Structure formats: C-alpha cells, structure tokens
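[step 3/7] fold_predict: job queued, chain A
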Amino acid sequence: MPELTPKQSRFVEEYLRDLNATQAAIRAGYSAKTAGDQGAQLIAKPHILAAIEAAKGARSAETKIDAAWVLKRLAVEADADMADLYFENGAIKPVHEWPKIWRQGLVAGVEHVEIKDAEGNATGDHVVKIKVSDRVRRLELIGKHVNVNAFQEQVNHTGLDALGDRLERALARAGGKGGK
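[step 4/7] structure written:
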C-alpha cells in the first residue's frame, strides 16, 4: 500500500475533526474550488481510507469510547426519567440534586421566569422551562466517529447487483432462444 504524502496525512487528521471530506480537503491545503472533488477522491483511495480507520481506532482506544460505551450510554439516556428532576410537589429540584445523566447534557437549557403582579412587583412565583437536548442525534454523531454502525443509514449488499445483472442476462438469453 502506498505511503501517505504529507498533504494526505494532513487530510486524514483534518477529516477526523468533523468527518467532512470537503472541509478536510480545504483545511489540508487543497483548493477550495476543487475541494469537494478532491475530498471524494481522497476518501475513495484504499490507503487513505485505511489510515482514517486506523486513526479512528487509535482515537477510540485513547478515549475509551467504543461501540460498547455508546450503547451503554444510549441505554442509560433512554432510561433517564424526567420525573427525577422534580420534587413530589412538582417543584423543580436544584441542579446539583439532578441525577448525573441529566447534568451531563440531557438538558439543553433551563429558563426561569419570575411572575410579577400588575404593578411589576415579583410575586415570589416563577415558571421553570426545561429544554431537553436531542439525545439520539448526539449519540449518532459519536457512533459515526467510532464506527458503531448502529446508526448506519444505508446498508450495502455486495453481490446483489451482480446477481441481478446475471439473472437479467439469463432471462434475456432464455427469451431470445424461446422467441426464435
């Protein structure tokens, strides 16, 4: 397998940042005008793809984020109960009392709105709005970075196209012979 050029090595490093071949090509020094084509060509080369996969594997080992981690995290997040954020009387608990999984990113934002009377004086009441983050999207991104394939949108069935072509040719031959 050919060795990577310095520019190709840079492309591999940049590709790992966001998994965007076009942007990686630009950051690696390829022309912005041709970056889309260059990125697609680079990612299609077996030795570059192998370097990307090796780098992903090394990163996965270093961070200890692998398929098992993603699936464990998904299970914990799927089981997270929003009721854990509230006292029995319906009041929201202070953030430091929330279960760790909620504090680690399941809540995208908390908004406190103080209620005032007609004169603009605070009544002591308030409304709390909690915005829950998109858990699945975040995990899809992590999964794509560590090759989980749990979120793969398209599954390729190798050999089926060739089989279809062979069947089509066989039917054409059979039809051709029967028609003579």
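[step 5/7] annotate
The chain has a mean pLDDT of 82.
The radius of gyration is 27 Å.
exit 0
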